[in-house]
Design brief:
The protein has about 60 residues and is of the alpha+beta class. Helices cover about 25% and strands about 10% of the residues.
């Protein structure tokens, strides 16, 4: 049994992706970036009336 994958696609076109993606109307995957998440969270904070002073400081 041959379990080796047929790797004819260059790595640039088929990245080793371990995250989340959106699928557009044409079926293309659009990776969800940290910037997209930050923008969405900021929008939710704005809608909720939360200011930067009320946010907890990030822990790293």
């Amino acid at each position: 049994m041959n379990t080796e994958q047929n790797d004819k696609t260059p790595k640039e076109k088929n990245p080793d992706f371990h995250g989340a993606a959106l699928i557009d109307d044409d079926g293309n995957e659009i990776p969800i970036t940290e910037g997209m998440v930050q923008e969405a969270c900021s929008g939710l904070d704005e809608e909720a009336g939360i200011t930067n002073d009320e946010k907890p400081s990030p822990s790293k």
